[in-house]
Amino acid sequence: MNTKEQNKKKKGFTLIELIIVIAIIAILAAIAIPNFLGIQRKSKIKADIASAKTIYDATSAAIAEGAINPEELKTVSGTNEKVGESTVELNPESKASDGPGKAIEDRLQTIPTGRYTPGNFIVTIKQESDSIKPTITVSIKPKDAQQDTANIEVYPNGTGKYSINSLDGSAN
User: Fold this and answer.
1) Residue 51 CB neighbour total at 10 angstroms
2) I want to staple 119 with a disulfide (CB 3.0 to 4.6 A). Which of 2, 49, 56, 143 is the partner?
3) Element housing 60 (H / E)
4) CA separation for the pair 18, 71 (Å, rounded)
């Protein structure tokens, strides 16, 4: 009769069992959290690349439709004077009123900003005198960068974290 009463009282977990379960959960969390942060970083990089490609496509469409005339960007004939480059900063807080900036913004639903590298996107259109097709590059101007800091090219030839060859995001 005494053993029946003892068996009824043994309902629950011992302290050792609870500590082991907590230790297993802590080990799983220690493994999962860094992986989650890596996935989050990669998704922000891929979002920036996707935004840059959208801007690139909008710029190409503006050129194809004649809203941006690359012939106006060519080098002055007979001189070495380069007028063959136009740089546009896409700023969601202040929209462009005319020129290439307005032509690009008109073809975008929203003006994106950098997710991995906070800042505004920069579009550079270059037209060489001997080239038929202009060169378009999309970069990010880091938000807190100094004046002389270079922009980070994102598309089509990304640099550093935005390099297509560094899909793991480990490039500098």
Assistant:
1) 23
2) 143
3) helix 15-64
4) 74
- Give the bridge partners for 126, in sequence order: 85, 135
Per-domain residue ranges of the chain: 15-162
pLDDT in tens, 94-109: 877 777 888 888 888 8
Q: Which residues contact 37 (CB under 8 A, 6 or more apart)?
A: none
Classify each residue of 127-144 as buried b or exposed e, where b means 16 or more C-beta atoms within 10 Å of its C-beta. bbeeeeebebbbbbbbee
Q: If phi over 0 gives left and psi between -120 and 50 gives alpha, with beta otherwise, what is residue 125?
A: beta
Q: What average pLDDT does the structure give for the chain?
A: 79
The CA angle 90-92-97, to the nearest 5 degrees, is 65
The pTM for the full model equals 0.70
